[in-house]
# Entry
Amino acid sequence: MGHLQLPEGKKIAVNLGTDFDAQALWLGAFNRPSPATMSRGQYGAEVGVPRLLELYDRYDIKSTWFTPGHTVDTFSEQCKQVLDRGHEFGHHGYYHEIPPGITKDTEKRLMQLAFDSFEKVLGLRPVGYRSPYWDYSESTLDLVEEFGFRYDSSLMARDLVPYYPRRWQVRWEQGNIAGKASHVLEVPVNWYLDDFPPLAYTGPQAGMQDTETILRRWTDIFDYAYDKVENPVYATCVHPQTIGQPHHIMWYERLIEHIASKDGVWFATLDEITAAWVDDEEDLRLQALPDIRGVEATPADSSFARSV
# Structure
């Protein structure tokens, strides 16, 4: 596997990623377009975004904001403020749709719809993709390649180093078979470094956990990467409507203080991190393998089939 060529004097790449979902989160992920959930998305745009921008300015941090096209169209002024502060925008679907639940044609149409919003409102075309809901359909990786993205940040086969995602032939009563790797670099995500599941109230989810526990978890993961992993990437994900809450922005600043106190920290956008990746022969070999893929039908006598 290749490696990250960090700038001279740097020991770790840190991307403090932001998923600026706003109201789209409650549409595509939860199908809850109520006034209450729309107000929470509005809070993220009108309260959370300014708080995050002010915090990042104080520490001279540039981050990557994965933003649905729906947010770009609905909260255009806040998106322009993010752009004016020098942050990168990443593609995050249109209305935070769930890719496994839609057809390839719909997934492709919504990807293009979001591109149109970025071009119309912000005059840019994102080079990175993060799947809404952090989930792939069987078509997503093909579409990521077709649309010419330089990197993806949706998958979890690694935690602290980038890699090239592979297709798989999924079988039930035999071992799975690994197919060819993509030429699009994966900067992995991690549910343990996402603020929404442990801190946001959704009803069914636990949410609203102790902030000290989350701070300790995020700090521990950073310290492990810093002390034990060669040329690591520490990539987090926060949501303005969650991290923008007063008690959350406070622990988040304490995390940033801890990270910034270490020597050799490179705060970077994911595009900058991707540009620092160096392939090796193994990467190229995996990209040249046969295109093996697909998912076998669920066995008729499995518990899943029998429960239908």
The mean pLDDT is 96. The two ends are 42 Å apart (CA to CA).
